[in-house]
Amino acid sequence: MTIELLDDGLKKRLLNVCMEVARSREIVAACLYGPRILGYGGEKSAIEALLVLKSSRPIFGCHLKPIDSGDEGNVLVLVVDQGFFERDIEGEWLGGLIVDNLITPYEPLINPEYLRREEVKAKKRIILEMVNNLVLEYPEMSSEILIMPEYFLYEAMRRKAILFPLMTYRFLNILRDDLRDKNLKLMMDGFMKALESLIDEGVLERSGRFLTITKSYIRTFKRRRILLINLLESIRRRIIRYIFAVFPKIMRSLIVEKELYTGLQRGIKDLSTPQLWSLTGFSEPSLITSPSVSPPEEAVIDEYLRSSIFEAPLEKLEDPEKYIFISTPLGLVSLSDRITVEDFLRRVVPSDEPSAVLFRKIGGVLNSVYVLDIRRREREERIVVKVFKDWYGLKWFPLALWALGTKGFSVLGRSRLEREYAINRYLSANGVYVPKILYASPKERMIFEEFVEGISLTDVVRNIVLSKGLAPSFMDLVRRAGAELAKVHNLGVALGDCKPENLLVASNGRICFVDLEQASKGGDQSWDIAEFLYYAGHYVPPFLVDVVKQISRRFIEGYLDGGGNPENVRKARSIRYMKVFSFFTPPNIVLAIREVCEETLNTRSPT
To answer: Which of 3, 236, 248, 455 lies 20 to 30 Å from 223, alpha-carbon distance?
Structure first.
């Protein structure tokens, strides 16, 4: 990065200060950064410098030195040995405190090629971590999201601000209105070079003006064994402990950033006087050569975390999710998008077109499900609105309790919305009939879908029961449902919630799958078969064993004829599934279904 706000004479004097601090040690690289370099500090404010030295022992410290006679202010020299520096670049060994100075704009003083190479290396690592986090956070939707390059910059800022709140003020100062464009260009240049490298490596690919995560990388990443821990809190405490124990004075420059920001908000144009450093408690210069100081007590760290001194207006930072999009028939939607039902109606119904709208709830204990009846001129349209609530604390979710140890359910509203969106689009693209998604608002946890007219397989089963099994047309629908489920399974998808009520016979005669919020790629397909059969058995009286056998046989035959894996049927007989559904399906019905699974498999494969 080249800022060039200082004249050559001042740069030479700053170089002399760096050489004085380095003494006999070889200087690997040096750069300048901070308020005065970036144009929002006064002429007498301290210039900040990063000095990387070659050394056989660890060095991490700082000096506050006058520039020549001191008429031109002071220079705060942050000193680190090359080993510590490169370890911070590669894995935030020092909590990223050194890396941050290369992520934000800086002015090279010595060895710009080395600094540029390390800057791009750091930004590449940061981008890759964010890509991995997106795959973890959106396991089903990660291949669908469209990412603008700016996302990685703003997300890097947000994460660092959460871990170390005082950094917020530096980012806000860097991105203030009169400096924003210039500084964004300087910072994004390194990110773009890092992105190009990841594109070449097959991690990302271009999609117009957006980037997408490649399917091959997602598959590779998901195969890795990942240990999920509370990473944010552990890193935050590590950083704080290290600062308290080894290097407390590094916070002083960030307190200056806060004073500059708050001063600007109050209309004070120049707070960057030499006295400001003493006001923030910066005392004698220090050079710490060993990080072996004992860490503070946990109570001290907790007090630091609670201290109002370190609170920062995180909400003023740019929302990174504004730069991630998903596609809908009504256009691209950013993950930060907030939409109400009224907003949606304004998008689908022209303001000058007469219309009448009825908004009614149609059910949903675990979710809020509504229908929009829209009447305009001679056309009537129905749209389903699903609001995905978190399931924490709900006492009426017995299936999750009954299935404990057998089947895991996704409980977070956002993750269930993500599954509904991603699996819906995937199945639709592969010829499976699902409701068309019209719009989505991940921030509000809402999805708008077409309303599919039809009857559920629950009603089909009830009609079969009423006819005591003498309803060939209804039996054929059960067989077709089994064949359609086989098609879904052959695409590598498990529905996760395959109750008969979630399969509809649409008005066009096709089998339609609804409520895909528990669906996933690579899930437990045998659970789908077990759930459909044992749930269907719930609607059959205990004395109509022959009827439930007919229903089960036709469903399994359809599944196998449709190319379904016989092993899934075999596993559906498992005792662990039987115990889950025995709570609400009579035991003799459960046993009858299990027998049919075995009989049908033996008939199809006598060996």
So the answer is: 236
